[in-house]
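Recap from last week: sequence in, structure out.
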Amino acid sequence: MMSDSEEAARSRPKRIVLVDDSALYAEAWRAVFHSRYGERVAFEAYQDPVEALRHFAADVDLLLLDLEMPVLDGRKLAVMAEQRGIACRRIVILSAHSADELHELFPPSSCLAVINKTEPKQQQAFLMILDSVMKR
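Predicted structure tokens:
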């Protein structure tokens, strides 16, 4: 049996935050989230990592971070996100680097996943992760 707070958390839209300096990439994902999950997701996108930091809180269900951005990169943002209460198991690192390179930078326990932005198989894996998050 769920507590009232667990029930409330489960019934609210999932808060998914994307931090990526590409507005085009952000809009593409906004469309995916809207078509795939509709009102069950509250999607936020930030191109400025410093601005995004102001919105990091423990209620983020999934945080998607671009690895390479001006000013702050995804590694630094991941550390700052954890300091603001976002568990590492809710952080996904996105990059054009190969999955092997990403796994070298991020050991398995440092985040939920590392995803190559351009490889179709990686995109499929990412969609499976999203579906799993939406079922929580």
